[in-house]
């Protein structure tokens, strides 16, 4: 696994819980215990009320594609073997929007509004990245 | 107190290995001072536009080399401003501070970028990492083109614009660039077929709709509007300004197309000017990707929301059209010089207001509205300029 050449997420102490959960193939969302905000991406304080009283909730892992773009060129070398890459913004049921890739899907079949579900790829021993695929 | 731009100088956008950073810098600084018709020792401050991905030059600028090398004996202070593509706008704001506080009557704002000596992989890395989040975007292979492709795709979905409609924006921008000796695409217009048949980079963006990185440089010489009036020469007088922040990360923005930011910043600028959008003879939109040319027109209130692509598709915004927009060509029609695109936008606006835009000249150009942005359009900085004292 250590031959993974693509950039790994630069994990922060306050986002560690997200990646710990991802490692066990669970998608979680940071929440504010004072104002109930759902926070993405994770921060050290709630962006709505500045509370530092933060928690995590399990996400269903289901969402729909708000926007997508299929990239055919212009990526850094480590991504070149993956082309074409389907970039997508996915709206989760829980009301947050994530940047991700759509996998297990032909680029010609992807569409705005498509129902998708999370799927994790163990890219190193420590990191599992959340991707999305067409919902079954 | 308001300001006016009374001097400009620029070198053509090109990939020319014979030009050096300091060679361009020297040429544009001296050129803008001469164009303004003042003495070098009258320059009271040098506010430089931060050059992206060129740390040595940025340090030269930040630590005062320009007035020293050029012997600007009246210079009271210097600084560099960095807000990505919106740096020139912030340099103008800083110039206003020096002028308003009687610290300077004349302020020089230079910019230089050379990207052709930076390895391609480094540039891709810079433009992939600089505006994107290293944790939540970068690991997914997002590039600048990819992020803007996402937004363009959704814009087409919401507005009903076709790929051909969007390609028409690039045809118009390249049309302006083809008429401009300062463009890397001078003499090289493209047809709709040329755009549609160019390589697909990130759907729906073809290679001709993406930015071509190049070298360039320019400078502005700014003074108080009453001094400009006494000089009695044509100038670009600042009438009003407004600005809005949209957010750093594309996926997190609620104002996905910046329409609200264009609307509110233009309303502030027009209110300051005491004018309406219908009084504008020219709209200059620096968004670096074609969809912004559409959504800015929607935000400005030129057309209803969702209709911004139509005047472009109808050929009204390009050369010969009745709604001239972005005669500078934007990055797509001009070549992308990092933080220098906004510099070129201001210079082109000055040329239009002075009646010096040659074959691109907008007839009787009295008022112009211009929007610049930094990052991946983290903000819209909108200014109304007029050719006469307000
Ligand atoms: Zn909160």
Plain-language structure description:
The complex is a heterodimer of chains A (136) and B (390). With 136 residues, chain A is mainly β. Chain A has a single domain (13-134), classed as OB fold (Dihydrolipoamide Acetyltransferase, E2P), CATH 2.40.50. Helix content of chain A is 6%, strand content 37%. Chain A has 1 helix and 8 strands. Chain A has one helix spanning 16-23, and strands spanning 28-32, 38-39, 54-58, 62-71, 85-92, 97-101, 115-122, 128-134. In chain A, the strands form 2 sheets. In chain A, strands 6-5-4-7-8 form a 5-stranded antiparallel beta sheet. Chain A has a 3-stranded antiparallel beta sheet with strand order 2-1-3, covered by helices on one side. In chain A, a hairpin with a 5-residue loop joins β7 and β8. The longest helix of chain A has 8 residues, at 16-23. Chain A is globular and about 45 Å long. The model of chain A has no long low-confidence stretch (mean pLDDT 96). Chain B is of the alpha/beta class and 390 residues long. Chain B has a domain at 3-117 and 214-231: Peroxisomal Thiolase, Chain A, domain 1, CATH 3.40.47. Chain B is built from 14 helices and 11 strands. Chain B has a 9-stranded mixed beta sheet, with helices on both faces. Chain B has a two-stranded antiparallel sheet with strand order 5-6. In chain B, α7 (163-178) crosses α11 (290-300) and α10 (259-273) crosses α11 (290-300). At the A-B interface, β4, β5 and β6 of A face α5, α6 and β5 of B. The complex binds zinc ion. Residues 32, 34-35, 37, 46, 48-49, 51 of chain A line the site of zinc ion.
Short summary:
Chain A has about 140 residues and is mostly beta strands. Chain A has 1 helix and 8 strands.
Which terms would index this structure?
heterodimer, A: 136 residues, mainly beta, OB fold (Dihydrolipoamide Acetyltransferase, E2P), 5-stranded antiparallel beta sheet, 3-stranded antiparallel beta sheet, 1 helix, 8 strands, B: 390 residues, alpha/beta, Peroxisomal Thiolase, Chain A, domain 1, 9-stranded mixed beta sheet, two-stranded antiparallel ribbon, globular, binds zinc ion
């Amino acid at each position: 696994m250590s031959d993974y050449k693509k950039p790994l997420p630069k994990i922060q102490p306050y986002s560690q819980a997200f990646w710990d959960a991802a490692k066990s193939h669970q998608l979680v969302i940071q929440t504010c215990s004072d104002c109930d905000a759902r926070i993405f991406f994770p921060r050290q304080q709630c962006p709505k009320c500045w509370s530092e009283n933060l928690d995590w909730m399990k996400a269903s892992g289901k969402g729909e594609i708000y926007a997508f773009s299929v990239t055919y060129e212009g990526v850094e070398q480590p991504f070149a073997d993956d082309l074409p890459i389907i970039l997508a913004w996915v709206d989760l049921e829980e009301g947050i929007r994530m940047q991700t890739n759509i996998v297990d899907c032909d680029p010609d079949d992807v569409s705005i509004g498509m129902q998708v579900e999370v799927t994790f790829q163990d890219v190193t021993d420590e990191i599992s990245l959340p991707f999305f695929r067409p919902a079954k | 107190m308001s300001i006016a731009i009374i001097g400009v100088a620029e070198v053509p956008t090109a990939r020319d290995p014979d030009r050096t950073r300091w060679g361009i810098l020297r040429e544009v600084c001296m050129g803008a001072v001469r164009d303004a018709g003042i003495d070098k020792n009258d320059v009271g401050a040098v506010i430089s536009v931060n050059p992206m991905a060129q740390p040595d030059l940025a340090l030269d600028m930040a630590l005062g080399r320009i007035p020293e090398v050029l012997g600007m004996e009246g210079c009271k202070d210097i600084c560099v401003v960095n807000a990505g593509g919106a740096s020139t706008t912030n340099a103008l704001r800083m110039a206003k501070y020096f002028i308003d506080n009687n610290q300077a009557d004349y302020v020089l704002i230079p910019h230089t970028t050379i990207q052709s000596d930076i390895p391609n992989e480094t540039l891709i890395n810079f433009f992939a990492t600089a505006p994107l989040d290293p944790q939540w975007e970068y690991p997914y292979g997002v590039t600048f083109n990819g992020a803007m492709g996402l937004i363009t795709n959704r814009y087409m979905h919401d507005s009903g614009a076709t790929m051909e409609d969007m390609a028409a924006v690039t045809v118009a921008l390249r049309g302006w660039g083809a008429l401009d000796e300062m463009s890397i695409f001078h003499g090289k217009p493209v047809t709709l077929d040329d755009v549609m048949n160019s390589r697909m980079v990130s759907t729906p963006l073809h290679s001709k709709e993406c930015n071509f990185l190049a070298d360039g440089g320019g400078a502005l010489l700014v003074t108080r509007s009453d001094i400009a009036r006494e000089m009695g020469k044509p100038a670009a007088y600042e009438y009003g300004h407004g600005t809005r922040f949209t957010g750093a990360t594309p996926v997190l923005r609620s104002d996905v197309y910046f329409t609200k930011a264009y609307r509110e910043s233009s309303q502030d600028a027009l209110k300051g000017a005491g004018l309406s959008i219908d009084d504008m003879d020219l709209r200059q939109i620096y968004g670096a990707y074609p969809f912004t040319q559409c959504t800015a027109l929607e935000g400005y209130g030129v057309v209803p929301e969702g209709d911004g692509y139509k005047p472009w598709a109808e050929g009204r915004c390009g050369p010969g059209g009745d709604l001239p927009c972005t005669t500078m060509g934007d990055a797509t029609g001009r070549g992308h010089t990092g933080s220098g695109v906004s510099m070129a936008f201001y210079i082109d606006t000055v040329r239009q207001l002075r009646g010096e835009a040659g074959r691109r000249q907008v007839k009787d150009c009295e008022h112009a509205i211009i929007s610049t942005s930094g990052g991946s359009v983290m903000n819209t900085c909108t200014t109304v300029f007029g050719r006469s004292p307000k």
